[in-house]
Amino acid sequence: MKKRLLFLVTLMAGFGYGNAQDLPANPDPGKCYVKCITKDTFKEVTETIQTSPAYTTLEIVPATYKTVEERVLVKEASKKYTYVPAVYETVDVTYMKKEGRNNLSVVPATFGSSSQRFETYPQTSGWEYRILEDCPSVNKDDCVAACFVEYPAQFREVSFTTLATDASTNASPVPEQMATYKKRVVKTPARMEEIEIPAEYTTITKQVVDTPASTRSNTVPAQTSTVTRTVLDQKGGITTWEPVDCELLNPTVLPVFYELGSARLTADSKRVIDETLLPILNDSNVNVEIMSHTDSRGNDSFNQSLSQQRANSVVNYLVSQGISRSRLSSRGFGETRLTNRCSNGVDCSEAQHARNRRTEFRVINN
Fold first, then answer.
1. Domains, the chain
2. Helix (H, G, I), strand (E, B) or coil at 32
3. The predicted structure's pLDDT at residue 54
4. Phi and psi at residue 197, in whole multiples of 5°?
5. N or C: which end of the chain has fewer CB within 10 A?
6. Closest CA to 336 of 302, 293, 273
7. Which residue positions does the secretion signal occupy (predicted)?
8. Rounded to whole angstroms, how far apart are CA atoms 48 and 63?
9. Average pLDDT per block of 10 residues along the chain, 366 residues long
């Protein structure tokens, strides 16, 4: 009776401790609950810094000409009289044969240099002890002098390039070209009988500017460098209770088996993970521990490393499916947890060895 009473008091104390830990209210019978504390999440931020400024280069696009025809008067109309013909004289008529233009030349961008002085070592001072030469005393401490010594700071000049002036153009005028043609004009008109003399025309060709000279600019982009740093994205620390099947708190075998000496996940293995483990992680905030094993064949230390690689391959696959790595942990047990008698030196079939090359999972608290 006394022992039963002691057990009842202990049981009540245990319930009091559970309530002090803020256990879930109104729990479902037969359910187990896992405490989940959200973790800090981080993200990478890439910043771009300019290491060299942008500048402009200019390219000359020459002027283009086109040839045009123009009908010009070369002999004016006049009147002719009987007996006294008209008298003509020839004059030169000036016209613009080729229009003037501007030639452009590029003045390249110019650069300067500058520097900045940085202190590489600070100024220091202190006491130094020196032994005087030709000390007459046998005891050298009698000839020690204390000197307060100062050492100046050390500096370094760092040079860098600056843009002094950007590229531009200079314009130099090219004058137009002139030409003449002959023209006969009436000097003395005819007299008496008046006869009409028609005017005479001819067609001349000349070159005119079709498109004026211009410049085409090319921008040399600035040179940059990127710096990547990790920053806090969301602060964690929120505690929740997730209901899980109690069986999931114990190691549960995933039917994921591996080839001998390999940690590669096959297509069938990925399908098993998608159908069994991935829904548990997507539908809750619980954390999961992945545990992988090998068979007994091979070196023990190699099997330990191989089992860790197998657990890591499952974790990496879950991360590729959108599960946060902070919710997953992996452990390799090598050949220390065989499911059958197939230990070192025991003759077993390939099917028996294959059952030991397995992966298990269980739900754990944060």
1. 26-40+243-364 (3.30.1330.60), 58-106+168-218 (no CATH), 110-165 (no CATH)
2. strand
3. 85
4. -110, 115
5. N
6. 293
7. 1-20
8. 42
9. 30 34 62 54 72 85 90 86 85 87 87 84 81 70 75 84 86 88 88 84 90 87 80 58 50 69 86 89 85 88 91 92 89 90 90 86 74
Q: Retrieve residue 344's tokens.
A: 């070192």
- Pair 353, 294: CB distance under 8 Å: no
Query: Cα separations (Å) of 149 from 122, 132, 141, 154?
Result: 14, 16, 20, 16
Both tokens assigned to 83: 């007996």
3-state helix, strand, coil in the chain (%, to 5): 20, 50, 30
Paired tokens of 38: 């959200």
Pairwise CA distance, residues 263 & 363, whole Å: 23
Structure-block tokens of residue 44:
């990478």
Per-residue model confidence (pLDDT) at position 32? 63
- Cα–Cα dist 54/51, whole Å: 10
Helix (H, G, I), strand (E, B) or coil at 246: helix
Structure tokens at 258: 């591996």
The burial class, CB within 10 Å (0-12 / 13-18 / 19+), for 123 is exposed
| Residue type for position 324 | S
Alpha-carbon gap, residue 33 to 22, rounded angstroms? 12
Structure tokens at 93: 């008529």
Q: What angle do CA 119, 122, 126 make, to 5 degrees?
A: 160
144 contacts 131 by C-beta, under 8 angstroms: yes
